[in-house]
């Protein structure tokens, strides 16, 4: 309860400042991001509220998003005095490629290093859209077709991110697939980190352990693996237990 009141107090102070400068400024706890309206409209959870005055719009919308629990992104339409809330994950450094209908939203997701990283991975399962790049594209709408799904062979159930440079981080978040088969594709999961590339799949024993998730995951579980100490690394490998049916992961964050 004490923690909660501290949080609310901090939030109100932080948010009072930018009320008059919403157009240019970034709210401290939120990041502005341009994203296609059509893309966020495919969210599996959407809600609108209409407010009676402009003055409390930003404050009310931030707080409403937090209170909803499932909300990751919101869009203020100042002329209609509505705020629309979406569960879609959009990372602050997401790069929109369809700008025709882009809207300026606020995302709750943190600035991270997985977005726009390079990725290599084991052989993909047959569905073409379920590619490894889905883990580094900075957007996820809880549709299983936008997850990364590997083949079932033992040597294929892995991925490696290349952050492009040695960077320091302590949190890695993974989101399990959005149905109950998550228990078969996300367990005995190990994350390791390193500073040099590996020529081929070797089980990643040359890398240092970052953390693990014994599992088994439930649907859409947000698995946050935190290192007791910040680590500095360029490469991050992830692999599931050899017994797992396949590896399926839908979204990833590194910060
Ligand atoms: C929410 O409000 C916006 C106006 O900003 C409107 O375009 C949109 O269709 C509404 N969405 C829903 C789900 O009602
Ligand atoms: C609210 O803001 C919008 C856009 O800035 C403006 O068009 C509208 O007149 C404002 N409404 C009120 C009641 O101030
Ligand atoms: C990803 O690979 C491309 C092509 O090799 C390179 O230009 C880019 O800098 C790389 N980005 C990162 C984050 O490693
Ligand atoms: C979950 O999705 C997978 C595809 O990844 C599918 O094969 C499986 O049948 C689905 N399971 C359930 C319980 O819907």
TrEMBL record:
It comes from Homarus americanus. InterPro entries: Galactose-bd-like_sf. Keywords: Signal. This is F5/8 type C domain-containing protein. Residues 1-24 form the signal peptide.
